[in-house]
Amino acid sequence: MKKGFFIIAILLISVFSFLSFNSKIGASKVESATKMDWPNQSEGNNPVIRHIRTADPSAHIWNDGKVWMYTSRDMEDATFYDSMDGYRAFSSTDMVNWTDHGEVLHSKDISWGVPGWMWAPTAIYKNNKYYLLYPHSVKGSKDDMRCGVAVSDVPEGPFKDIGWIKGVEGQWLDPCVFEDDDGKVYLYWGVREPKVARLKDNLLELAEKPRTIEYGNTNFFEASYMHKRNGKYYFSYNAGLGGFYGMADNPYGPFEYQGAINPKQRQDHHSILNYKGQDYFFYHWQNWNGGSKFSRNVAIEYLYYNEDDTIQEIFASEEGVKKVK
């Protein structure tokens, strides 16, 4: 009897050990699959906008203490960028929870353009009003773009188109508008060859002849961006295979090439701001939840500077940024 009981106990222990061992193997496989599938099964805060597809975030802090973000609108099953039909506004006070204020401007509201073709926007507060500057196609081609201007009395829109900036027609734009500390406003734009010119206060006319930007390299593709910190000007852009930048002591350059900001993120189109003492990097992903280079989602990372004021490289993460008070 005792011998039989002992044999049964041994068998039970063996079976339990076998099941436990295989369970651990199964768990290990699940963990590996989840990691491999990232960011499709993300449990972090990136991307920050998930209920719709958004791209090209233009982030700003206005006078209400919130972070405002204006984005282009990607379609779920898009096969090209011609289906991008409008812009949306989002706001946040903690960098994690975002309020969707809905569509603020649609291609149907642009009398001089075609349906769709509403590419990466930029924004500015000037003349006690909020402005969106944006590229839009006249006839349905990337070679006949204009830089439109729309205005609103409130940051959440809606925005009303008031025309386009003369002198920058016919180019794939991706504009960036930048106001310096002295109140002068500059427009950066271009594809393959970056341009800059100061704007008149009405934001509808160039105040000078455009200049070609010297940035110490030849890898510029699109998505010009300008920000300023500690008296230094940072000209950054998308090289087609990630974000890169240069530094100068004035908004025109020439800029001393510094290398990569976000080298691993293809199609990097970013904006940068400081909120409550922390610097942030806004950009978009292509591969979340079945996305593509035509169906993207906005994400945010922390941005850090070195002691010599150069920028530390950004690496896309599912964790993203944490809530701030």
Concise overview:
This protein has about 325 residues and is mostly beta strands. Helix content is about 10%, strand content about 40%.
Q: What is the fold's blueprint, element by element?
A:
Layout: H1 2-37, E1 53-61, E2 67-74, E3 86-92, E4 99-106, E5 122-126, E6 129-137, E7 145-152, E8 160-164, E9 176-179, E10 185-189, E11 195-199, E12 211-212, E13 222-229, E14 232-238, E15 243-248, E16 256-262, E17 271-275, E18 278-285, E19 297-302
Antiparallel strand pairs: 1-2, 2-3, 3-4, 5-6, 6-7, 7-8, 9-10, 10-11, 11-12, 13-14, 14-15, 15-16, 17-18, 18-19
Could you tell me the strand content as a percent range? 35-45%
Helix-strand string: HEEEEEEEEEEEEEEEEEEE
What oligomeric state do the depicted chains represent? single chain
Number of helices: 1
How many domains comprise the coordinates?
2
For the largest beta-sheet, the strand count, sense and barrel status come to: 4 strands, antiparallel
Main sheet strand line-up? 1-2-3-4
CATH class of the largest domain: Mainly Beta
- Name the overall outline: globular
Question: For the CA atoms, what is the radius of gyration?
Answer: 24 Å
- As for the CATH topology of the largest domain, it is Tachylectin-2, Chain A
What is the straight-line distance between the termini? 69 Å
Residue windows where pLDDT falls under 50 for at least 5 positions: 1-42
Name given to the CATH architecture of the largest domain: 5 Propeller
CATH homologous superfamily of the largest domain - what is it?
Answer: Glycosyl hydrolase domain, family 43
Structural class: mainly beta
Number of strands: 19
Which range best describes the helical content: under 10%, 10-25%, 25-40%, 40-55%, 55-70% or over 70%?
10-25%
